[in-house]
Amino acid sequence: MWTTAKAPSLAEMEAMAHEVFARLPATFRALCEGLIIRVDDFPTEEVLDEMQAESEFDLLGLFHGIGLPQQSHGDVARLPNLVWLYRRPILDYWAEHDETLGHIVRHVLIHEIGHHFGLSDADMEAIEADAG
């Protein structure tokens, strides 16, 4: 078994993220209409600068868009909200901690979607427990 184990590709991790999303509470998912989930190896240099990250491994994910609390019906057409998961930093975190990869992906996904809703860390922990 261990001779065939390998890190997931970008496409495999994106599929995992969508599978994790599908298992989140229905009421939570319903509020995410139009949300796009993407996976890339690392954040862009622009994102690293904007987030004042010291290393390309500092960010596991990022919400990009206008959170629900800031949206209004009078908004002009805008780009869809995106959640980015960063594969290499997630794999690095996985290698250093005693958690499953699926659990880490779920945690990062919920945390980044939580920014979409303007949720507190306690709110996100409750959602993660429900998704358990």
In the CATH hierarchy, what is the class? Alpha Beta
CATH topology: Zincin-like
The value of Rg in angstroms is 15 Å
- The order of strands across the largest sheet is 1-3-2
Mean pLDDT: 85
Number of strands: 3
- Tell me the number of structural domains: 1
GO biological process, one term: proteolysis
Pfam family, one: Zincin_1
Keywords: Hydrolase, Protease
GO molecular function: peptidase activity
Outline the structure in words.
- Keywords: Hydrolase, Protease.
- One of its GO terms (biological process) is proteolysis.
- One of its GO terms (molecular function) is peptidase activity.
- This protein has 132 residues and is mostly helical.
- The chain has one domain: Zincin-like (2-Layer Sandwich).
- 47% of the residues lie in helices and 11% in strands.
- The protein has 6 helices and 3 strands, in the order H-H-E-H-E-E-H-H-H.
- The chain has a 3-stranded mixed β-sheet with strand order 1-3-2.
- The radius of gyration is 15 Å and the shape is globular.
- It starts with 9 loop residues before the first helix and ends with a helix.
